[in-house]
Specification:
The protein is α+β, with helices and mostly antiparallel strands. The chain has helices spanning 11-25, 75-85, 105-120, 131-140, 142-157, 257-262; strands spanning 33-34, 47-49, 57-63, 92-99, 125-129, 160-166, 176-186, 214-216, 220-228, 238-242, 247-252, 272-275, 280-283, 296-305, 311-319, 324-332, 336-346, 353-360, 362-364.
Length: 372
């Protein structure tokens, strides 16, 4: 039977499987725990527990959270997780890697070498279980086997596919900011006044109901697509995305300002709500309509990444009547810049320098951007 056992479809279910399996093997099913919650630092440990008869903790690192079914465990990943696990408290006796990747003779050799090094240094033992190893253990442990087979059947009934891209279909955000390069030079005239450039206020729209408005070019538009890939209709469902602390601002695509004032009926057709303080966006289908098999729903939302961001992390959660699923998507950020150069004069040679400052970039709504 074990030859037909396949890995779970996502990393959350893989962690749950490992907790169930090793809880049975270690005979500590009521005390084995997942470490923390999504987004918290875990010191390299996803699951921890005390096997029966042991006084020290054993830890498990479940590898393969990004496209995890195709993930290959690398030596660099092993080194990184071992370093993190050294800071787990209390100190671990055994540190286990579990992975959905197939057996690899080179990686197994590397694990044996790292295990010897760790033990010689008075640290934990290091063990690796590939998917073939885990399938053997599942086959040997009846409770986990029965639970997992039923779980597979359940996952075949309910499933969801989530895709988050930019509105242009790209997998990268390109906010535009203002890069001001200031050259401080020695003034030929000590009495010369230093000139400063006045910045425009940070707002997506401004200027009142009928005045001119301003556009903040830092806003990035995201397209979220939710597809029911299971065999059962999803009912009473909603979808939440959480930007956490990875962005400066968020917004939804609901009507605002003059559009909402002139047509209050638009609120009846609102499906997205942005919670700025929590950096979360909620989507609820119009009239609580179900998501039938093979059908998709989509919505747009907006965010402004931080100036220094190289990526943003979006945690998503789908909640339905008989089904829930969560996941994480990381989107790279590659900012564009409007370059502005200025010269300022100083009266002391020690103050001569060149400074670069990144700030928001806004233009009037009827004013074209140089690069657009």
């Amino acid at each position: 039977m074990k030859k037909s056992i396949r890995p779970p479809e996502n990393w959350q279910d893989f962690e749950t499987l490992c907790k169930k399996l090793f809880g049975e093997i270690w005979k500590c099913s009521h005390t084995i725990k997942k470490n923390g919650r999504l987004g918290q630092p875990q010191s390299g440990v996803d699951i921890y527990g005390k096997p029966k008869g042991e006084s020290d903790y054993w830890g498990i690192q479940c590898k393969g959270k990004d496209n995890y079914l195709d993930a290959k465990l690398t030596e660099q990943e092993i080194d990184d997780e071992i370093k993190k696990a050294l800071f787990f408290e209390p100190k671990l006796k055994v540190f286990i890697f579990t992975t959905t990747a197939p057996k690899d003779v080179n990686i197994e050799k590397y694990i044996r070498i790292k295990d010897q090094e760790s033990c010689k240094n008075g640290n934990f033992e290091i063990v690796l279980y590939s998917w073939q190893d885990l399938a053997d253990l599942i086959d040997e442990n009846k409770d986990t086997f029965n639970w997992y087979v039923n779980n597979i059947q359940f996952k075949e009934q309910f499933d969801i596919e989530i895709k988050i891209t930019t509105q242009k279909g790209e997998n990268i955000l390109t906010p535009k900011f203002l890069k001001t390069i200031t050259d401080y030079k020695l003034s030929p005239n000590p009495q010369k006044q230093i000139e400063y450039i006045v910045r425009m206020p940070d707002m997506k729209f401004s200027g009142g109901l009928f005045g001119s408005s301003k556009k903040n070019h830092g806003w990035c538009e995201l397209l979220i697509i939710m597809k029911n890939t299971g065999s059962i209709v999803l009912e009473d469902w909603k979808f939440i995305i959480d930007f956490g602390n990875s962005v400066h601002r968020i917004d939804d695509s609901s009507p605002k300002g003059i559009n909402l004032i002139l047509n209050k009926d638009l609120i009846k057709y609102t499906t997205t709500w942005a919670y700025e303080d929590e950096k979360k966006i909620l989507y609820k289908p119009l009239n609580n309509s179900p998501l039938i098999q093979k059908d998709s729903k989509s919505f747009n939302c907006f965010c402004i990444p931080y100036f220094e961001s190289s990526s943003i992390t979006i945690n998503w959660q789908l909640l339905a009547r008989d089904f829930d699923r969560e996941g994480e998507i990381v989107i790279p950020v590659s900012p564009l810049y409007k370059i502005e150069k200025q010269t300022k004069f100083v009266d002391d040679e020690s103050k001569i320098r060149v400074e670069t400052n990144i700030s928001k970039y806004t233009t009037l709504s009827n004013e074209s951007d140089d690069n657009e």
